[in-house]
Structure formats: structure tokens, C-alpha cells
Amino acid sequence: GPNHSRPGAEKIIWEHARRNFLLRARGLLPIVCPITDGGDLAGIGIFNEDIDLVKSIMDQDPAVKEGILVYEAHPCRSFPGDCLPEAGSADDKGRKGAAL
Fold first, then answer.
1. Fewer Cβ neighbours under 10 Å: the N or C end of the chain?
2. What phi, psi does 44 have (nearest 5°)?
3. Which phi and psi (to 5°) does residue 20 adopt?
4. DSSP percent split of the chain into helix, strand, coil, nearest 5
5. Angstrom distances, CA of residue 95 to CA of 74, 87, 89
6. Is 40:1 a contact under the CB 8 Å cutoff?
7. 94 pLDDT above the threshold of 80
8. Does pLDDT of 100 surpass 50?
9. Which has the closest alpha carbon to 29: 54, 65, 52, 1?
């Protein structure tokens, strides 16, 4: 976002992360993927809710409210049972995930 480099931004980003864990514990945000390649995209979150509720949730995010992060919301679907493999499982094969 436009205020990403402002003083105190790191503290607000930590509050954003703490909130993501709370949303995850409540079952609203089952998949959170911080992106660490140094590009413009900071992360991807897969919500388990209607897009209007997701926008309402994101509009209240402290980092969004402060202009430190911005978001886009896109409705999507997956196949029943889709999930990331458990670390160390036969499906994991030691790879890290990548978004296409």
C-alpha cells in the first residue's frame, strides 16, 4: 500500500498477522500464504466466506485501514477435498508451495 514504508508500519503489519491467526482459528481464513519473493504481492488468503463478508472483514484489517496494505477480492472455487499436504507427507515431497 501507499503507506507501507511509514514509521510504525511494521507494528501494524504484526497486528494484521495476529488478526489473520484469529480469523484462521475461527475458520474464516483457512489458508494464509505470506509471499516472500520481494515483489509487490505480500500474501494470499483463501477465505471460507461470501465475498461481501470477506470485503467487510478486509476493510476492517488494521493494515488496510492505515493504507499499509491493499487487497483485491476474487470469488473462486476449488475441488472437494482440496488442501495443502501435511509437511513430510508422501504428497509433500519437500517442496514449498507456489501460486500459479
1. C
2. -130, 135
3. -60, -40
4. 30, 10, 60
5. 26, 9, 11
6. no
7. no
8. no
9. 54
Q: Please give the Cα distance from 100 to 68 (Å, whole number).
A: 25
Q: How far is CA 1 from CA 14, 40, 41, 48, 99, in A?
A: 15, 9, 10, 25, 21
Cα end-to-end distance, the chain, whole Å: 23
Secondary structure element (H or E) that encloses residue 45, with its range: strand 43-46
> For the CA atoms of the chain, what is the radius of gyration?
15
Split at pLDDT 50, 70, 90, the class of 87 is confident
Lookup result for grid cell 501435511:
86
- pTM of the shown model: 0.79
Separation CA 99–CA 16 (nearest Å): 22
Query: Could you read off the pLDDT of 15-69 as tens digits, one per residue?
Result: 999 999 999 999 999 999 999 998 989 999 999 999 999 999 999 999 999 999 9
